[in-house]
Design a protein that fits this description.
Elements lengths: L9 H7 L2 E11 L8 E6 L4 E6 L7 H4 L3 E5 L5 E3 L2 E3 L2 E2 L1 E3 L5 E3 L11 E2 L1
Antiparallel strand pairs: 1-2, 1-4, 1-10, 2-3, 4-7, 5-6, 8-9
Length: about 120
């Protein structure tokens, strides 16, 4: 495994990508989707957004509620099987097809910007 992408400037990254900490308020199965994803409602403090997140292999929906996650909030809306996903909850592929979501090491205020 190597890092293949070309370098970009830190200023460009911070201008283009807005990541925020949000708390999962609800999580439910999404059988209508082609891929195995959950419908999430994520609280960012000043607003709540929905996300279709591929966190299904390691997490039960009830275990996700109350967890803080790192999400990209400025990608626009993507419609998946009629569901509007308004943010991208980030995760790491374990290599075995499982996705572990990224979260702060300790609780922080919902809506905090990630740098």
């Amino acid at each position: 495994m190597g890092i293949d992408e070309a370098d970009i400037s830190p200023e460009r990254f911070l201008e283009d990508v807005e990541m925020r900490i949000g708390e999962i308020r609800s999580a439910e199965r999404f059988p209508e989707a082609r891929k195995d994803v959950y419908k999430l409602t994520v609280d960012f403090g000043s607003e709540t957004r929905r996300s279709a997140a591929g966190l299904t292999d390691l997490y039960d929906p009830d275990d996700l509620v109350g967890r803080q996650v790192v999400a990209v909030v400025n990608l626009g809306t993507v419609t998946i099987a009629g569901f509007e996903s308004e943010c991208l909850v980030t995760g790491v592929d374990t290599g075995g097809g499982e996705v572990v979501h990224l979260q702060p090491e300790r609780e922080v205020e919902n809506g905090s910007r990630v740098y």
